[in-house]
Automatic annotation (TrEMBL):
Keyword Cell cycle: no
PROSITE patterns: ABC_TM1
InterPro entries: MetI-like, MetI-like_sf, ThiP_ABC_transpt
Cellular location(s): Cell inner membrane; Cell membrane
GO molecular function, one term: transmembrane transporter activity
Gene3D superfamilies found in the cross-reference section: MetI-like (1.10.3720.10)
GO cellular component terms, A-Z: plasma membrane
Primary subcellular site in the record, as a coarse category: membrane
GO BP term (any one): thiamine transport
Name by which UniProt lists this protein: Thiamine transport system permease protein ThiP
Record's bilayer topology term: Multi-pass membrane protein
C-alpha cells in the first residue's frame, strides 16, 4: 500500500478519533456505574443471596444450552458432510445462517408458536389425548430458544471444518474397507475435536449474555439471568445499587469468557459453501447410513423452518392493514429506521477509520510503540466492545442522564450509539478481508497512475469495495432494527421502536398484533439483507 504524507496523517487521525470516541463512550458508562457514591451500596448488594442465585442460573443455563447445542450439532454436521450433493442442500446450508440474522424477538415468538401452551406441539399432544404438558416459560423455554439459535451456528462451524478434509482420506478408507466407526475415529473426530472448545466458548458467550430470550421466556425470578435482572432492577424496582452490582458482575463474567476465548482455537469462517465440488463419499453408501443421515437432516430442517413458518402464517392472519395505518406503528417505524441508519453509518464510519489507520501504520517499516499500540487497540476493538453488553452500557448512561432529566431527550442518540458498537464487530468482519484483498490488487497500480484522495476513491476504491460496504451497512441496519436490548431501558411513549412496540403488545396479551408486527419487522430485515448482499452490476470494475 502506498500513501502520501497527507494521506497517512488523515488515515491515522481518523482512526485515533474513532478509537477515542468508542473508548470514551464506554468509559463514561462504566464511570457512571462506579460513580455517584454507589460503590459501597453495590458492594453490599453482592452479599444478597438473590444476586448469587442469578449468577448461578446464568452460568447453569449457559452451560446446558452450550452442551445441548454442540452435542446435537456434531451429528447434524456429520450427516451434512457425508451428503455433499443432494437437491436443496445449498438452501439448507443457507438456512443455517437465518437464525443468526433473525431478530431475537421474532424467533422467540415463533418458538412460542411451536412449543407454547397453545402451540403446535401441544396441539398435537392434545389430539393424542395426552393433554398440554409442555410449558415454554422457564428454564425449558430458554434452553429451547438458545438451542434454536445456536445449534445452526455450531453445525455450520463444524461442517466447515469437515468440508476441508481431503477427499483422498475417505477414498483410502474405502479401499481399506474401514467401518464407519473407524472413519469417524480416525478421520472425522480429529477434525471435530479441536473445533469443539472454540465453538462451545462462542455459544457460551452468547448464552451468558442473552437478554431478549430470557426476558420473554424466563417466566419469573426463578429463571432470570444477570442482564434481565439489571433491567428489572432499573425498570421496575429502580434499585440503582443492585443494577450497578449486577452490571459489575456481568462485566467480570464477560471479561473472563472473552479471556478464555482468546486462548481457544477459532473455528474458520463457514462462508456459504455447499460443497458443490466435493465428490460422493465412498464410506457413506450404506443404506442404513443414508436413511439415518437424511432423516436427521429433515428433522434439523424442520427445527429451523417451523418457527419461521408460524410467524408467516400467524402474521398473515393478523390485521396487517390496521397495524400499518396506526399512528404509533408509523412513528415506531420511522424511529426504528432513523436509529438503524444512524447506528449503521456510525459503525461503518468507525470500521472504515480503523481499517484505514491500521493500513497506514502497516506501511511503516519500523513503527514507533505509539503506532503499534494504536493499531493493536483498533484491531482488538471488535472483540473488546463485547466486554460491556448493551444493557450494561444503557444502565450507565441511564443513571448518568436521569438526574438531569435528559433520558428522553438523549435516548435516540444513546440507543443508536449502543447499536453501532454492537454492530461494529460484524462490520469489521465483513470489511477487513475485503479491504485486504482490494489493497493487494490495486495499491501498486493506483500508485503507478498517481491516483490518490477522491480520484482514487471514485475510480478504484468505490467500484471495487461497493458490495462489501453495502453488505456491512445493510447487516448493521438489520441488526439495529431488530434489537430490543439497547432500547429496553429507554423505551416508552417518548421512544417507541418496532421491537419495543412488539414487546409492549406481547406484554399486554395482544398476540395477534404482536404476530403481525413480527412479520413486518422480519420482512424489513429481510429486505435489508437482500439489498445488501445483491451485487451491483459493475461491482467488478476498478479491480485488476
Amino acid at each position: 500500500m502506498y500513501l502520501t504524507g497527507a494521506e497517512f496523517r488523515r488515515s491515522l487521525s481518523a482512526g485515533l478519533v474513532a478509537l477515542l470516541a468508542v473508548l470514551g463512550f464506554i468509559a463514561v458508562a462504566v464511570a457512571s456505574l462506579a460513580g455517584f457514591g454507589r460503590l459501597a451500596d453495590a458492594a453490599a448488594v453482592l452479599n444478597e443471596p438473590y444476586v448469587w442465585r442469578i449468577l448461578r442460573f446464568t452460568l447453569y443455563q449457559a452451560c446446558l444450552s452450550t452442551l445441548i447445542s454442540v452435542a446435537l450439532a456434531i451429528p447434524v454436521a456429520l450427516a451434512m458432510a457425508r451428503r455433499p450433493q443432494f437437491p436443496g442442500r445449498i438452501w439448507i446450508v443457507r438456512l443455517m445462517a437465518v437464525p443468526l440474522g433473525l431478530p431475537v424477538l421474532i424467533g422467540a415468538l415463533g418458538i412460542i408458536g411451536i412449543w407454547g401452551r397453545q402451540g403446535l406441539f401441544n396441539d398435537m399432544l392434545d389430539l393424542a389425548a395426552l393433554g398440554r404438558p409442555l410449558q415454554i416459560y422457564g428454564l425449558q423455554g430458554i434452553l429451547i430458544a438458545h438451542v434454536y439459535f445456536n445449534l445452526p451456528l455450531a453445525a455450520r462451524l463444524i461442517l466447515a471444518g469437515l468440508e476441508r478434509v481431503p477427499q483422498e482420506y475417505f477414498k483410502t478408507a474405502a479401499m481399506l474397507a474401514m467401518p464407519q466407526r473407524s472413519v469417524f475415529r480416525l478421520i472425522e473426530w480429529p477434525v471435530i475435536a479441536p473445533l469443539i472448545a472454540g465453538v462451545a466458548g462462542l455459544i457460551f458467550m452468547l448464552c451468558a449474555t442473552s437478554f431478549t430470550l430470557v426476558l420473554i421466556l424466563g417466566g419469573g425470578p426463578a429463571a432470570t439471568t444477570i442482564e434481565v435482572a439489571i433491567y428489572q432492577a432499573l425498570r421496575f424496582d429502580f434499585n440503582p445499587a443492585r443494577a450497578v452490582a449486577l452490571s459489575g458482575l456481568q462485566i467480570v463474567l464477560t471479561a473472563l469468557v472473552l479471556a478464555a476465548l482468546a486462548f481457544l482455537p477459532r473455528a474458520g469462517d463457514p462462508g456459504t459453501s455447499a460443497s458443490s465440488e466435493a465428490g460422493r463419499r465412498p464410506d457413506a453408501d450404506h443404506r442404513l447410513s443414508r436413511g439415518f443421515d437424511f432423516a436427521l437432516i429433515a428433522l434439523f430442517t424442520l427445527w429451523l423452518i417451523l418457527p419461521l413458518a408460524v410467524i408467516v402464517v400467524k402474521g398473515a392472519g393478523a390485521d396487517l392493514i390496521g397495524l400499518l395505518v396506526e399512528p404509533v406503528f408509523l412513528r415506531a417505524t420511522a424511529t426504528s429506521l432513523a436509529i438503524a441508519l444512524s447506528a449503521a453509518l456510525a459503525a461503518l464510519a468507525v470500521a472504515l477509520s480503523f481499517i484505514a489507520a491500521i493500513g497506514a501504520i502497516r506501511t511503516l517499516r519500523a513503527p514507533e510503540p505509539f503506532y503499534r499500540g494504536s493499531a493493536g487497540a483498533m484491531s482488538a476493538m471488535g472483540s473488546l466492545v463485547l466486554l460491556v453488553p448493551p444493557i450494561v452500557l444503557g444502565t450507565g448512561w441511564f443513571l448518568l442522564l436521569r438526574p438531569f432529566g435528559l433520558t428522553d431527550t438523549a435516548a435516540p442518540a444513546i440507543v443508536a450509539a449502543i447499536n453501532a458498537l454492537m454492530a461494529l464487530p460484524f462490520v469489521l468482519r465483513v470489511l477487513q478481508p475485503a479491504f485486504a484483498v482490494h489493497r493487494s490488487r490495486t495499491a501498486r497500480l493506483a500508485a503507478s497512475l498517481g491516483l490518490s484522495g477522491l480520484a482514487r476513491l471514485r475510480i478504484v476504491d468505490w467500484p471495487g469495495l461497493r458490495r462489501p460496504v453495502l453488505t456491512a451497512l445493510a447487516f448493521a441496519m438489520a441488526l439495529s432494527l431488530g434489537d430490543l436490548g439497547a432500547v429496553a431501558l429507554f423505551g416508552g411513549d417518548q421512544l417507541t421502536t418496532l421491537p419495543w412496540l412488539l414487546y409492549s403488545r406481547l406484554g399486554s396479551y395482544r398476540t395477534d398484533d404482536a404476530n403481525g408486527l413480527a412479520l413486518i419487522l422480519g420482512a424489513l430485515c429481510l429486505v435489508l439483507m437482500i439489498a445488501g448482499t445483491r451485487a451491483p452490476r459493475n461491482a467488478g470494475r476498478g479491480q485488476t
